[in-house]
Structure formats: structure tokens, C-alpha cells
Amino acid sequence: MNPMKMRPFGPLQVPLPSVGQGTWMMENEKAGAIRALRTGIDLGATHIDTAELYGSGRVEELVGEAIQGLRDRVFLVSKVLPSNASYEGTIQACEQSLKRLGTDRLECYLLHWPGSYALEDTFRAFDHLLQDGKIRTYGVSNFDTKEMREAVAIAGKDRILCNQVLYHIGERAVEHELLPWCGENQIALVAYSPLGQGNFPKKSGLLAKIAETHQATPEQVALAFLLRSPHVFVIPKASREEHVRANAGAADLELTPGEIAELEKAFPTGPKRTLPTL
Ligand code: NAP
């Protein structure tokens, strides 16, 4: 297999693979999940997303085991809970995540969703962690366009690397405004639940038909559809090795303009509405 294609991630233009790996709910699938994560890293899916929330820390511990011996190849992302996102709380939460992950730094640290602590305080803590070398960059998650504008006004231009949001072929609300806005501002849009948590609509066999043309799977087509925008990255979660292999393969799948148009028609964006979240 060829090495996975990279694309520039956020304002720093860090080259990252378009397909990464999610880890939510891996805590009850530990052995398989560790194998799958390691296989994924070997296949180039080195962007690994986790959070202090997942399994109340148990997923970070599992990720720590999975990346042992592979740490330097991984772009490791974790997230602080909004309820911990005060200045002191963010610093403490990060230090605890690092301990569970068995590492000394995160490549990117995200605020999991907007909360009640002032963003100024959270970002000040992120800056402190940057200076200490405990994080390399930071970003946000579940921020709508208005919240992104406010966040950039506080953090300054080119400071926020990414916004991680719900985006899959059956849930295209971000395409109305947030996705183009992120593109214009060179902020990476990281699609979470890019397979709709395994339940994306397979609508009248269109995904299967396009998949067959490419000798691919409907899930690979669904991921490739999201990757048609150059600043989108996907982080499917897979505890099974066959899934992680398929997901890595999606990075090489190029849909034709005709196929994209068919999919856009079959899976419409729907009316403009507030940012959907899980
Ligand atoms: P997802 O990635 O859309 O779907 C995961 C499900 O799809 C699992 O059941 C998995 O099965 C299955 N699957 C994976 N690859 C497949 C393939 N190639 N073919 C068929 N089935 C496949 O759902 P998600 O876990 O909600 O989202 C991905 C990641 O995004 C999370 O794990 C988490 O890291 C992140 N996330 C972030 C937020 C946030 O608020 N920032 C919210 C939700 C999720 P197996 O596991 O059995 O292989």
C-alpha cells in the first residue's frame, strides 16, 4: 500500500493524513481496539483523537498502551471537558490526560464544546501549556460559525488549528456556513462520527453502486465524499482491523464529479439550522 496522502492541517499547514482514528467507546473493546489503533498507525492513520471524557479516562489509558513504541509517529489529540475549562482546571486536566496517555505532550488540545468558563481563561491556559511544551497546538470542538468568530477574536489569527464537528453524508448541516468559513480562515474541519456511528443512511443503494464501481465499500465512499473538501479530515472509530484497513483505504478513493453530484442530490444538506451535535 502507498503511504497515506497528507493534506495541510489548519493555519500552520502541518501535513496530516486525511483519515485519522477516533476512540470514543473503545473502553469495552480494549484488546481489539489496541490492535486496530496500531494497525491504523502502520497504515498512516496517525491522527488519533481521544478525550478525558471517554470511558472517564480509560480510553486515554488504552490509547497510551496502543501508541507505546510508536509515539513519534502519532499526532495525538485530546480534549478538555467544558466543566474543567477554567484556567487552573484546564492545566490540571491536561496534566492528567498526559499521565493517562503516558506521554509528555499532545500535538493538539481541544475544548470539547463551548461551556460556561470564559474562553479567555481556557485559551490563556492553552497558552501556558504551549509555553510549557505540554501541548503543541490547540483547537476547539462543536463550535458554530458565530462561536468560531468569537474564538478567533479572542485567540488571535492563526492560533486555532481546527474545529471538530459532527459531519457525515447523512448530516451535512456544516456545509451551509461553517465549512466554507473554516476554509476561508484556514481552520481544519475535523469530521467526527463521519460514519454516522455506523448508522449512516445507505439510501437506495447509491453508495453501494458507487462503491462497486471503485471496488470499494459504501463506508469508504461515505468517507471519500467528506474528503472532497481539501480542509476536511475524518476520524472514524474502528475497533475491528478490517474496518481500520477500509478506512485507511478511503484516503485513496477519488470520486468523480458526477458521483459527487449524485451523492449531493441523494443526501441533501437540508435547511440551515444550528450546529448539530451528538
Ligand atoms: P463513527 O466513526 O462514525 O462510527 C463508528 C462505528 O462505525 C463503529 O461501530 C465502527 O465499528 C463502525 N465502523 C468503522 N469503520 C467502519 C467501516 N469501514 N465499515 C463499517 N463499519 C465501520 O462514530 P464515532 O465513534 O461517534 O465518531 C468517530 C470519532 O469522533 C469518535 O470515536 C471520537 O474520537 C470523535 N467524536 C468526537 C465528538 C466531539 O464532541 N468532539 C463526538 C463524537 C465523536 P467497530 O468499532 O466495530 O470497528
In a nutshell, what does this entry contain?
The protein has 278 residues and is of the alpha/beta class.
Percent of sequence in beta strands: 5-15%
Category by helix and strand content: alpha/beta
Ligands, ions, cofactors? NADP nicotinamide-adenine-dinucleotide phosphate
Low-confidence stretches: none
Total strands: the figure is 9
Largest sheet entry: 7 strands, parallel
Shape: globular
Radius of gyration: 18 Å
Strand order of the largest sheet: 3-4-5-6-7-8-9
- The average pLDDT value, as a whole number, equals 96
The rounded distance between the terminal residues' Cα atoms is 34 Å
Number of helices: 10
Would you give an account of this structure?
The protein is of the alpha/beta class and 278 residues long. The chain has 10 helices and 9 strands. It has helices spanning 30-42, 58-66, 87-101, 119-131, 145-155, 178-184, 206-213, 218-226, 241-250, 257-266, and strands at 6-9, 14-17, 47-49, 75-80, 108-111, 138-141, 160-166, 188-192, 232-234. The strands form 2 sheets. The chain has a 7-stranded parallel β-sheet. A two-stranded antiparallel ribbon has the order 1-2. The longest helix has 15 residues, at 87-101. It starts with 5 loop residues before the first strand and ends in a 12-residue tail after the last helix. The model has no long low-confidence stretch (mean pLDDT 96). It binds NADP nicotinamide-adenine-dinucleotide phosphate. Residues 22-24, 49, 112, 141-142, 164, 192-198, 219, 235-240, 243, 246-247, 278 line the site of NADP nicotinamide-adenine-dinucleotide phosphate (NAP).
